[in-house]
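Next comes the chain:
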Amino acid sequence: MAQHHHASLPILAFVLTFCAGISESYFAIPLKLNPGTVNVSSAVSLASLRSAAGDGKGLTLATDPTGQVNFLDMVNNLRGDSGRGYYIEMAIGTPGQTVNILVDTGSSNFAVAAAPHPFITHYFNTELSSTYVSTGRTVSVRYTQGNWEGELGIDHVSVPNGPNGTVTINIAAILSSEGFFLPGINWQGILGLAYPMLARPDSSVEPFFNSVVKQLGIPDIFSLQMCGAGLSVATSAQPLGGSLILGGIEPTLYRGAVWYTPVIEEWYYQVEVLKLEVGDQNLDLDCKEYNMDKAIVDSGTTLLRLPANVFTAVVDAIMRSSLIQDFSAGFWDGTKLACWLKGETPWRFFPNLSIYLRATNTSQSFRITILPQLYIQPVTEVDNTLDCFRFGVSSSANGLVIGATVMEGFYVVFDRAQRRLGFALSNCAVSGGAALSEVAGPFSAADVAADCSTRVFKESVMWVVSYALMAVCALVLVVLLLLLLLPYRRRRRSGEITDESSLVRNRIK
C-alpha cells in the first residue's frame, strides 16, 4: 500500500501542475493579410502603388554609444510600397547571399525562399552556405491568404544598412508555397518582427529581432517609416521606400512629439483603440467594437482593416459627409476603382479619418489622423486622361488592423523594452508642402470604458476549452484521490495519463 502511495504522488503532482496551467496556456497562429487584388472593369488595368523615400538629411542625436548602431546608416534602407510591401536587403550565409526581405510586424518567423519560384528572381541556396545547419524540423505557416512550407535551419545573417555585426538566427527555408510570393514583388522572404508567441512551429523558435538584441546588445526597440503617402506610379519620380531603424529612434525622420500607447498583449503588437471619427463625426460605437477581436499594428497589411460593424459605420459616415452623390458601392467594397479626369484629384471631397488610442497615462488618449490622400489611393491612369483611385479601407473578420494605409502617415516606434508603440508625424508624409497626417492630444478618456480591449477567443472559446479541461482534471483528481485513500489492493499500477484535449493547440482565425 505504501508503494502505491509513492507511485501515485508524482502522478497527482503532474495532474495538479497540468490543471493549474490550463487557463494560462494557449497557442497562436500568425495572421497574415496579404495585399488583395482589386477587380475592376476591363478598361482599367491596375498598377502597383509607389511611394517616396525621405531624404534623411540632418544629424542624428541618437547613435547608440556602444558603437553597434549608427542610425543614419539605416535611413532609406527600405524599398517597395504599400501594395507590394516594404523590404530590406540582407546577406544570408557564408559567403553572404543577398536577398530582399519583406518587413512584417504581424508575424514572427524569418523565412526566405530556398527553392526557385516563378515570381521571384533568386533565392537562398542553402547548399552554397558553409555555415547553414538544418535542424531537421519542418515548418509551415498558413496565412489568411497563402501559405508556405519548408525546413528550419540556422545560419549567419547581416544587414548591410543595419546594425554592425553578424547574427546567428533561425531561418525557415521555404521549399514550397502557394499564394505567398506574388507577381511584381521584388522580395524573396519575410522578416517577422512580432513576438515569440507567433513563431512557428512554436515559441521556442527565437525571432530575428530577439536574436539581434541578445547577440549585438542593441536596445530592444525599432522604428519604422514607410514613405508611400498619396503617391502612385504616375506621380513618383524617385526611388521609393522608407527606413527601418533597428535599435532605436532616428530624430531626423519625424517632427514633433512621439505619442505612446501601451502594447496590451505581446503576440501581435496589440493596442487599444478607444474611438474613431470621420471628419468631426464620432462613430459613437461601444469601444469594444473597435477592438473586436483585437486591434494590431501590422506593416505587412496593405489597408486599414476594420471589424465589419465599424467598417459599415465608417462608410456610412463618409457617404454622409462626402460631396459625392450616388457613389458606386463597388468602390467601398474594393471591387471597383473610382476615376477622375487627370489633375482633378478627389481628395477635397472626402473627410479626415481619426483613430483615438489609449495613452500610457491610461486616463488619457491621443488621436492619429490621416487625410484623404492616405486612404483614397492613386493606383493607375487610363489613356493619359483619367487618374483612378482605390479605397484604402476594408472590412475584416480578424480584428482592426492598422496597416500601411495609416502607417505611411507616421513614424512608428516599436518600443518593446517599455512595452509601448509610439506615433509621430513622418517627415515624408507630405504633399505639396502640406502634412498628410496629424497627431494630437492628450484627450480625456473618461468618456470611454476602462478596458476597451476584447479577447474574444480567450474570454469565450478559450474559457470553454479551459472549463472543459478543468472538468476533466477534476474527474482525474477525484479518481486519483480515491486510489490514494481507498485500500483497494487489486488495482493496477501501470499505464499513463493521456489527455486528448491537450492536442488542441491552435487558435482558429
Notes: The chain has a mean pLDDT of 79. DSSP finds nine helices and 29 strands in the chain. The first helix runs from residue 2 to 21. The first strand starts at residue 78 and ends at 81.
